[in-house]
Amino acid sequence: MEGLELGVVTQPDEALRSSVESLLQRVEAVGGPAPLSEHKRMVLARDAWGAGSVRTGTDRLGGRDPRGDGSHAFGIVATSSGRSNPVGYAQVSGDGLGKEYAVELLVDPDVDRPADVADALVGRTIDQVTAHGGGTVRLWRPRATAADDDLAGGRGFRRERDLIQMRCPLPLPAAASPVVDRSGAVLSVRPFRPGQDEAAWLVTNNRAFATHPEQGHWDLETLLEREREAWFDPSGFLVLEVGGRMAGSCWTKVHADTSPPMGEIYVISVDPDFHGRGWGRGLTRAGLDWLAEQGLSVGMLYVDGGNRAAVSLYRSMGFTEDHVDRSYLRTVG
After folding, report:
1. What residue numbers bound the domain in which 229 lies?
2. E-assigned strand segments in 81-178
3. Would you say residue 320 lies in a domain?
4. 284 touches 268 (CB < 8 A)
5. Is there a domain that residue 257 lies in?
6. Strands 262-270 and 88-94: what pairing?
7. Distance between CA atoms of 279 and 286, rounded to whole angstroms?
8. Based on the domain organization, do 142 and 117 belong to the same domain?
9. Domain end point (choices 111, 133, 161)
10. Is 72 in contact with 50 (CB distance < 8 Å)?
């Protein structure tokens, strides 16, 4: 695109956050899909990105990220002649080891040829990673379309995963039911206790999602970062204990700023030692009932499109598919 310039940002500051927020507002004003995930927004809000720096040329691409959750990050800002505000932005985060990177894009809807801006942002991301030893790059596109497939394919990415957003009306039609074992035994849930339950929950969560690329490797700081978010409400973080052991949980999140407001099943997990007992359905039901009690009329969750058992379960509970977010994968360098 003529007149387009790309700059790499090594550390966040208020000027960058203000520019990105303005860009977000322009995208959302035209009804576009949420272009930055919660995690990428949290990365942008941090005081620093990793232990090192990210620069062009032959300099080192960042330091090690001891948390391995994306602190190792950089941004790419696209500007165009004659415009005072950026016309595009890419938020890139990594695993801290220089092996895996994830990128999400923002493009001004009013710019000429927005597809060219998106393509340039992806290209510069690949260049950065390649110049510093290579790695796996995962590109996420919300509400994926054929145009996103073309963008990714044109840069050598392959389709990796479909993340389906499913929704259901609340309250559920049947009367509220407790978590019940297949034998009929009633299992009670309780609210999460901040400052007490973190260690046990991390064990259960990481066992339940041992092979999951995003959810299966949380540490204490990752969890505490979520607890500091304004939306966090421990009363909607329901924990199931069996014999003094945390067997599973259903963590909900209220999206008060959507239209209509929605209640999300944010993270639901059952320890593998307790699989096959029907507790996933019971915990989902408990979370949806809690959300309905808060006055919400729409329930929502995300599920991997390849998890047919989970998709079937949610459909049987009244969920229907709303849209698909898609990830694309490429190894470079």
Report:
1. 171-296
2. 88-94, 100-107, 135-141, 158-169
3. no
4. yes
5. yes
6. unpaired
7. 10
8. yes
9. 161
10. yes
